Amino acid sequence: MNGTMFAYAGTIMLVLGGGEMIARPSSPPAPIEVSGCHAIDGDTLRCGSVRIRLLGIDAAEQPGHCRQGRQCAPGDPRAQRAALQQFSSKRLTVTPIKTDRWGRMVAVVRTTSGENLSCLMLRAGASYVARWDDRDTILRSCRSAVREANHL
Q1: I want to staple 84 with a disulfide (CB 3.0 to 4.6 A). Which of 39, 44, 91, 137 is the partner?
Q2: 130 to each of 59, 65, 72, 136, 143, how far by Cα in Å?
Q3: H or E segment at 30?
Q4: How far apart are CA 126 and CA 18, in angstroms?
Q5: Could you tell me what percentage of the chain is helix, strand and coil, using 3-state DSSP and rounding each to the nearest 5?
Q6: Are the C-beta atoms of residues 88 and 72 closer than 8 Å to each other?
Q7: How far is Cα 57 from Cα 49, in angstroms, rounded to an integer?
């Protein structure tokens, strides 16, 4: 059986090639390795049928996707998506944190060399959102990138 295994929110999810998911209870999530991920935009990856949102990051929206009345992240959405695609083109280590209201896994994602994709995306022009940073994980990982991204 080919598939990718994800553990988060107290559940192990095995995502099969056709997108079918099998779930079973688990202990706290452990980091898992994935490959073959694609950037949906500058803050979200798709790995098989699982969408992974980078912890603490808000990237620029594609033209027409920032709904009226919302203050969307500044920057070039195409450049931010391209940067995330470049950073995620190899094997990644995903540490699930929680599930957001849209059903995406929110996670700390690292390259094989240990670089945090959230930190890399801040350097590529994405914005840091403190209320989305569970336990200040990203702030502690790359304080200088957070300060530069938010002009502090």
Answers
A1: 39
A2: 14, 22, 15, 7, 12
A3: none
A4: 32
A5: 25, 35, 45
A6: no
A7: 21
